[in-house]
Amino acid sequence: MRTRILRWIGLSVLALLCVSPAFGQGCALCYTGADATGARGERMLDIGILVLLLPCLILFAGIFVMLVRRARAATA
User: Fold this and answer.
1) Structural domain includes residue 20
2) Pair 5, 71: CB distance under 8 Å
3) For residues 41 and 34, is the Cβ–Cβ distance under 8 A?
4) pTM passes above 0.90
5) Helix, strand, coil percentages in the chain from 3-state DSSP, rounded to 5
6) How many domains does the chain have?
7) Beta carbons within 8 Å of 34's beta carbon, 6+ residues apart
8) DSSP code of 26?
9) What average pLDDT values come out for the chain (76 residues) when binned by 10 residues?
């Protein structure tokens, strides 16, 4: 059962590394727009990034906890 969990984790990491849009973050237009907003705009962008990151982290943590609980239940 442990190898199955490790296989899923490995496949998840591989899928995240292979996502091509993640490498498109160096957009000159986005950089210019963010640079022109000033200090307050930069702060709002930082907060926006954190807000968009939270649901992903919560889903990842929930799936990880569910996998760990399932693995412990299978060994008991």
Assistant:
1) no
2) yes
3) yes
4) no
5) 85, 0, 15
6) 1
7) 41, 42, 45
8) T
9) 81 74 64 81 87 93 94 86
